[in-house]
Design goal:
10 helices; 389 residues; seven-stranded mixed sheet; 25% strand; alpha+beta; 3 domains; SH3 type barrels; BirA Bifunctional Protein, domain 2; four-stranded antiparallel sheet
């Protein structure tokens, strides 16, 4: 009697809180897991937990997300059973301006974790896209709740394409999954554990110096852009240069055709210093005396040119006169506020002069500030304004 033939197919990769915690071999990163079969967004849940004092290193994992978040608030629905959706909650004792560097730590951790579990050569496309064979495998989003001079908490969300078989036509040329690149399914819990172990190691190195000096060589060894020609996009300027690697603050060092070395930082990464990082607030613009740069939230590019120019002049002159970092932030109620911070032990920052300058700007720029508040309330908050008022 002939045996009937059966074709074996991959069994579903089912995760659980107990399984993940049993595999995580760390002191604190991911030791406590909060697991959901389905959730709006792991970042949302992590932020709520941070507000309520959940433990440092708590890891939020979901099999399915229905309101995953990307940069500038983009939202999407994520399928179940095929990807890793996780967010780690942190309470770093560092200045808020250094928090964006945490995103690069997670990039290292994800790349190391994928290499350990799958053996695939994994690279980082600066600053924090993870690529295998030239295709994007992972996205990372860092958000922060902060006051002017200290951090309440940071959450780092990670989405890894693990066992997807197909992608939509508009992204299939640039996106892939570990299963497609490896030729077989990958156990998600094992990958989560590997990423957490690497992240804990990187985080503790970072906290010692509060910069990337101890991880710079490792990051650069994974940098897919290294020693290649790259296109550098800066506000009002675009040019090609030769990528050398990152410095200790995460900026990409490039060599221009005339032989000069320049520091470059992508707009999305720059803005995290100002934007990301104000929970429940929206940043309009800011200026940084340490980097000698001005930033405008791209969501406000539609403002009239004369208004944008006035904002730029106001912010740049402010930090030139008193130093530090100035950020214009819309509160939840639409009020436009000035927020100022400075590096610790900055002998040049004029605290008294800063306060006097802010009062002068609030007085001299009253019409501009009121017009911006009205604009924000109408076009962003959807408020109806009574023309008779």
């Amino acid at each position: 009697m002939r045996n009937k033939g059966y074709r074996l197919i991959d069994s579903p990769d089912v995760m659980s809180k107990a399984e993940i915690e049993s595999l995580v071999d760390t002191k604190w990163a991911g030791k406590n897991v909060v697991y959901y079969d389905e959730i709006d967004s792991t970042n949302n849940r992590a932020k709520e937990a941070g507000d309520n004092g959940a433990a440092h290193g708590t890891l939020f994992v979901a099999d399915m997300q229905v309101a995953g978040k990307g940069r500038r608030g983009r939202v999407w629905k994520s399928p179940s059973g095929s990807s890793i959706y996780m967010t780690i909650l942190l309470y770093p004792d560092i200045p808020p301006v250094k928090a964006p560097q945490l995103t690069l730590l997670m990039a290292i951790a994800v790349a190391e974790g994928i290499q350990e579990v799958t053996g695939l050569e994994t690279k980082i496309k600066w600053p924090n896209d993870i690529v295998v064979n030239g295709r994007k495998i992972c996205g990372i989003l860092t958000e922060m709740s902060t006051e002017i001079d200290y951090i309440n908490h940071v959450v780092i969300g990670v989405g890894i394409n693990v066992n997807q078989d197909t992608f939509p036509d508009d992204i299939k040329a640039t996106a892939s999954s570990l299963k497609l690149e490896l030729g077989k399914s990958v156990k998600r819990s094992e990958l989560i554990a590997a990423v957490m172990k690497s992240f804990e190691k990187c985080y503790e190195i970072f906290i010692e110096t509060e910069d990337l000096s101890g991880l710079q060589e490792l990051y650069n060894s994974m940098l897919v852009n290294r020693d290649q020609e790259v296109k550098v996009l800066e506000p009002g300027n675009e040019y090609k240069a030769h990528a050398i690697g990152i410095n200790q603050t995460g900026e990409l060092i490039v060599r221009t055709p005339d032989g000069k070395e320049k520091k470059s930082m992508p707009e999305r990464y720059q803005l995290e210093v100002f934007m990301g990082m104000y929970d429940e607030k929206v940043v309009l613009c800011g200026a940084n005396s340490y980097e000698e740069k001005y930033y405008l939230n791209p969501d406000f590019e539609q403002l009239p040119d004369d208004v944008k120019n006035e904002l730029k002049i106001m912010c740049v002159l402010y930090v030139h006169d008193v130093g530090g970092i100035l950020t214009l932030v819309f509160e939840e109620n639409g009020e436009l506020c000035f927020e100022v911070t400075s590096d610790d032990f900055d002998p040049m920052f004029d605290d008294i002069g800063s306060q006097l300058k802010i009062k002068q700007l609030q007085r001299d720029k009253q019409d501009l500030l009121q017009a911006l508040q009205l604009y924000y309330k109408v076009f962003f908050l959807g408020e109806e304004i009574n023309s008779e008022e």
